[in-house]
Amino acid sequence: MNTLFLLMAQYDGKAVIPLNRVCADYMNLTVEKFKNKCLHGEIEIPIVRTGANSQKAALGIHINDLAQYIDKQRAKAISELEKLTGR
How many Å apart are CA 71 and CA 87, to the nearest integer? Predict the structure, then answer.
């Protein structure tokens, strides 16, 4: 399965997913906690500011970045499982 295509279906083909949706659907964090973790390097995913360059501009995650993040997390989980099971 291609993660990007699945996300495109989930988010109706939008290029940038609103930050609150990503947090609710995948991070189980509030938007503020998610932004804080990104700023401190705990979560490595770029946040896109859409619209005017102002503090009030909408924040989101580009669908390609979210797909890559999910795929990296999956690869880490597979690696950990292989270490635990010796496969």
Answer: 20
